[in-house]
Amino acid sequence: MNDSRKRLTRAEAKAQTRELLLEAAASTFADKGFAGASVDEIAEAAGFSIGALYSNFANKEQLFMEVLSTRATSRVAQATQIIEGGEDGLQDPMAALGRLLVDVADKDIDFAPLRAEFWLYAVRNPAVLDTFAARMREPTEALEHLVGKEMDRHGNPAAVPATNVAVVVHALFQGLVQQRRIDPASVPDELFGQALGWLFTGVKNAEQGECR
Amino acid sequence: MNDSRKRLTRAEAKAQTRELLLEAAASTFADKGFAGASVDEIAEAAGFSIGALYSNFANKEQLFMEVLSTRATSRVAQATQIIEGGEDGLQDPMAALGRLLVDVADKDIDFAPLRAEFWLYAVRNPAVLDTFAARMREPTEALEHLVGKEMDRHGNPAAVPATNVAVVVHALFQGLVQQRRIDPASVPDELFGQALGWLFTGVKNAEQGECR
DNA sequence: GTCTATAAACAGATAGAC
DNA sequence: GTCTATCTGTTTATAGAC
Q: Which of A68, A83, A115 is at the close of a domain?
């Protein structure tokens, strides 16, 4: 009994070390990039030494991929799922989604750089490309539900596939987040929601034919 | 006379070396990133040795910034300016712009990775951020002209600022290019033009109020 | 399981030959 | 103006102490 408690505690300790290393890795990779970040400074940022890192991860690449698995990309999916279940945005889902996206962009400072780093890594390593593409399909699918509902709300069945609209919304979001990072004045808070509004009235009219 | 010809030829030779180094640098940075690419392999890719590189550029960073100055980001601006002056897209400027963006995305394979690399560098180096932001304003401003014309074509004066629409179009383009790179099937050729169509009918209706 | 010490390879940048 | 050789620091990854 004592023994099992002890074993559990040790397992927990190791798990905690792993988690701390993953957090430090995410932050350091965001700051300096995959090639630019050294395993040494990652370990140090986590409060450990290089030995602990190699005891928990096979090498730098595996650590990087592990960060991809646990963090970063699914934020948007989480966010949109909150909107679907929550009381927010019952009136105007698009404005609510706009606010939420701004929130994701501003709160999680590492989000965009980390995503860019993963994207580059995926583009450069064909073996990883499918894994990353699958990760990116997550938020798009979450958006697809929202998009589908919104399109239903406005009437008739799909002349435009919800999947395509979801891809566009996702791409627009990523693009705006990046632009906001280098030139905040050019991307005011409201622009997210406005752009979504334009897009959806446009889709709506495409469905039912031009309205004038 | 003989002397001046000789001097000119040498200057040209050096200029050519510089240009070759810049091309090789752009390609290598796109392939391996700023931190991942070594000056050695850049020089080698250009057909020169490391000494020639350091004879033409102060260091790796300056070479990188020089690549930014000469290449990469202004492609979209060039493209949209062609549309404005050309015979193409007189009927449907948005569809033409869509085709053109697809072309930029597919033909210039280094475009997106290089842009991502510059973006990351700018985000990480505050001193460079303004320079890069200015570069990014170039294509947006070119788009703004197109957008303004298109909005005029549909009628009344701006309830929506053309600048904001241009930012959205640019962001959308960048996002779609990135998504297409990791999951081509999710971003068919027509989607660029379609999305622009949705956006503009949406903006149009926002200008003149909802149409139903 | 984590740390310290170290091996082996490689980086950016410089100096001097041609 | 370009090349070769080299200096110096840093990198990833491993081995053995605790």
A: A68
Give the count of domains, chain B.
2
For B38 and D16, how far is CA from C1' in angstroms?
Answer: 34
Residue in B with minimal Cα distance to A163: B186
Output the tens digit of pLDDT for each of chain A's 212 residues. Answer: 445 556 678 788 899 999 999 999 999 999 999 999 999 999 999 999 999 999 999 999 999 999 999 986 667 888 888 888 877 777 888 888 899 889 988 999 999 999 999 999 999 999 999 999 999 999 999 999 999 988 888 766 668 999 999 999 999 999 999 999 999 999 999 999 999 999 999 998 887 666 55
CB contact under 8 A, B172 and A175: yes
- Residue B55 and residue B86 share a domain: no
Instruction: Mark whether B48 and B80 lie in a shared domain.
Output: no
Q: Distance between CA B206 and CA B49 in Å, rounded?
A: 59
Determine, for residues A172 and B171 on separate chains, whether the beta-carbon distance falls below 8 Å. yes
Q: Is A199–B203 a contact, with Cβ atoms under 8 angstroms apart?
A: no
Same domain, B97 and B188: yes
- Is the same domain home to A141 and A48? no
**Option in B122, B187, B195 nearest A182 (CB):** B122
Q: Structure tokens of A107?
A: 């709160």
Long-range contacts at B155-164 (CB < 8 A, ≥ 24 apart): B155/B204, B155/B207, B155/B208, B156/B207, B156/B208, B158/B207, B159/B206, B159/B207, B160/A194, B160/A198, B160/B203, B160/B206, B160/B207, B163/A186, B164/A188, B164/A191, B164/A194
Check whether residue B60 and residue B83 sit in a common domain.
Answer: no
Name the pTM for this structure. Answer: 0.95
Strand D within 7 Å of which CB atoms in B 55-114?
55-56
Q: Rounded to whole angstroms, how far apart are CA atoms A6 and A10?
A: 6
Please tell me whether any atom of strand D lies within 7 Å of the Cβ of B50. yes
- Domain with A50 in it: what CATH number? 1.10.10.60
Asked, for residue A188, whether it belongs to a domain, the answer is yes
Decide if B175 and A172 are in contact by the 8 Å CB cutoff. Answer: yes
Query: Do B62 and B77 belong to one domain?
Result: no
Domain containing B35 equals 2-67
